[in-house]
């Protein structure tokens, strides 16, 4: 018989939760009311409940890893259930039965087991550091301490959703230029390895001296045919060595400095890092996490060693009682606008709101850059690839023109 999770109140106004077996949701409501309870919410087993109370049938497909989308959905469902009055233990049980990740199912059940043995929710999360970051653990601890776990989880879910949406924008903006570039160079390689050699065989029967451009193209084609495998192995070797190099602290810092100094793109990478930092800080501070802990979490969370060093210096200065504004200014990393907004936020006690505004500004700046980049990159690649193909076509037909002049 189907199971229904319910939230209800007794005649004294005390909230109660439980599980009721019934054929339909209406039958479950009748049974719950027969117990003298006032029904608040009834949730069928095997459905997904979202923040807008939309119901979706549980997916049967499972995968082994835990994706960012899995965590985002887990957080949103958890905040919705807790906000609806469902206990944390029952919420974990409900979510565990509908997650798309087998690993997240095991983790959810482990969280429930550890909490039943006496651990708090944030302590149970801390036992899975590879899945739940410091941001998760500290925000949950803040929510438990303040009694606003549902609100804090809702903010965390909003942060994860916003972050995921921003990453999708970046990926979507870069996919088309990458496809265009790969297709263009693929066409050039095809022409060099298949079309040019065919024309070269035809030209051998001509009793004329080949134009210089044609000779260069045939020479390039012969070189590629002879060493194409070696070229790809060399490229693969360079990529492998580069990836191993940037795994080291020195290599990674060198590459980060290189990215920040790039013309045009350097400003984008700078804006992207400030956007990530300000997004995390606004979420942490809004949820009641102290400024020092917020900076410490941000230091561990950012995916940039240079940025992490700057945040560590800011954290140490704040610990010594120095104004955050001075630390931001001395870093040489932040623009005057950011420094001024942080200064104002400190003075009026509105740092969370100021970081949110900084985040909105830089996110819009990154969006604008990506939009302009794609609109400019497309015609540039088309003209570049088209120009090379045009030169190849001219080079292949020049001997034919020369032959027609001789015969004429």
In percent, how much strand structure appears in the residues? 5-15%
CATH class of the largest domain: Mainly Alpha
How would the global form be characterised? elongated
Give the overall average pLDDT: 82
- CA-atom Rg in angstroms: 30 Å
How does this model look, in words?
The protein has 408 residues and is mainly alpha-helical. It folds into three domains: 1-45; 50-132, Up-down Bundle (Receptor-associated Protein); 162-408, Up-down Bundle (Receptor-associated Protein). The protein has 15 helices and five strands. The chain has helices at residues 25-34, 68-83, 88-96, 102-116, 121-126, 134-146, 149-203, 212-247, 249-261, 265-286, 291-301, 305-319, 324-331, 336-348, 351-407; strands at residues 3-9, 15-21, 38-44, 47-49, 55-57. Strands 2-1-3 form a three-stranded antiparallel beta sheet, with helices on one face. Strands 4-5 form a two-stranded antiparallel ribbon. A hairpin with a 5-residue loop joins strand 1 (3-9) and strand 2. Helix 6 (134-146) runs antiparallel to helix 7 (149-203) and helix 9 (249-261) crosses helix 10 (265-286). 27% of the residues are buried.
